[in-house]
Amino acid sequence: MHTPGPWTYSQRERAPWKFEIHTPTTGGPSMPTEYRREIALTTDGNEANARLIATTPALLATLQELLGVTELNLDDMEPETRVIVQKAVELVTPFEGG
Predict the structure, then answer these.
(1) What pTM value is reported for the model?
(2) How far apart are CA 59 and CA 62, in angstroms?
(3) Sign of CA dihedral 80, 67, 98, 51
């Protein structure tokens, strides 16, 4: 099960090559409302990678919503479009139900 969104990120002040991914917690009243996971990214794309990781729950939810549209009829699509939709289904399927 993945951690539901929304996720955000921030750059560490004293270690600018490190970013923290902030996720909501679902613990009891004594738990903080946010949990931080530190990630060290060692390429030039550190911030872009952190942004991508932080937007993953929203991307997944949007893709699930798109695939759940009742008007989505594979028979009416071009073959190339069907292949892309099938890839999306395969990516989303492991996350169904949580």
Answers:
(1) 0.59
(2) 5
(3) positive
Nearest CA to 53 among 9, 10, 97, 3? 9
- pLDDT tens for the chain, 98 residues long, are 566 677 777 877 787 777 777 777 655 554 455 566 666 665 566 677 778 888 888 888 888 888 887 677 888 889 998 899 889 888 888 877 65
SS3 assignment for 72-87? CCHHHCCHHHHHHHHH
Q: How far is Cα 98 from Cα 4, in angstroms, rounded to an integer?
A: 8
